[in-house]
Predict the structure.
Amino acid sequence: MINKKVSNVQEALTGVKSEMTFMLGGFGLCGIPENAISELVKLNVREITCISNNAGVDAFGLGLLLQNKQIKKMISSYVGENDEFERQMLSGELEVELTPQGTLAEKCRAAQAGFPAFYTPAGYGTEVSEGKETREFDGKMYVLETAYKADFAFIKAWKGDAAGNLIFKGTSRNFNPNMCGAATITVAEVEEMVAVGVLDPNNVHVPGIFVQRIFQGEDYEKRIEQRTVRQKK
Amino acid sequence: MALDKIGIAKRIAQEVQDGFYVNLGIGIPTLVANYVRDDIEVEFQSENGVLGMGPFPFDGEEDADIINAGKQTITTLPGASFFDSAMSFAMIRGKHVDLTILGAMEVAENGDIANWKIPGKMVKGMGGAMDLVASAENIIVAMMHTNKHGDSKILKKCSLPLTGVGCVTKVVTNLAVLEVKGQQFHLLERAPGVSVQEIQEATEGTLVVNGEIPEMNI
């Protein structure tokens, strides 16, 4: 077993610098690497580029990095629900690249899987395809999209072990598995670090080969954006 | 009388067939799940990574790790599955999802749709909408026929930045059911009590009216 375990978030983020590009897992506030985000705020790295489906909310998730004006460029598919984001975008302080959600996921997966680029129908004929190569296959038009390049991927998993194997819970899986191994260094934080051998190999969602560092996360808030419930009759 | 949002959702629910995998957008489309006949088997896909979505959880049973694409807490039904975002869009791009229902700000007679950006005003992003409309073969748009100033949203040509080109097949509005075919809107049904003339007046795009147009049965 190759040991990927590090003792804490500080050790896990060794080498993180200003002007780097980071991938961050999560959909809304679900499955976001809360510990890594807090540490990025503490480290106060500046001029960073973040690849993440959403930009958090005003005072949580990536919103914390926005408030602190650490983000130079945001690459996302949906950025509603965040007033500070909108303010920085409209004032020109923040560069924003909006990408269709499936394309964003696939640009991560392509980086993970060693594909430089791929064709997708998403965005053809819209401003998303402007300046990009397009091509017809079987009578339908496609847009050439390239793989992302990132320095670090920050992943949040439910359970993991020192070998770097990961398991996710519910829809907190989202972009996390696609970002593992898609950056130079993949850092996974887990709610529960289990002993090696506990995870059933049949049920591992991400094999440890895609993870360079793994640590036991702390103090998860796991905020809910839209609490929708029904009443028992 | 023109339909309200629930009326639109009820009419669209009639388009959902037994054995369909269905992706519902945010807004009116989300309501469709409440009105699907209960004698058919349907599975709802949410692009953040769940197939087999159930109703909202009971108060106190909500789980931050189980949400839909609108970031609402949900439950899953027996037979449900979770998956990552790339696999979710493999389902969508690969045409494994049978029906996509989504909202729009504008649709045009050539099947173009705009629903993600108002330049200088609202830029929230396209989320999964561009992937959905580019790949789905069966797209129903749920929308109001006109905006709050009474201007038509059923157009010859979209004025807002496009989400997809030539992709919309059917539109259900508060006034009518329209089919998009051969670069024209075809009037299929009227909302109860709404006249063909009212629909014509509210439609900027080319509207084909063939014979007697029945009222929706909802």
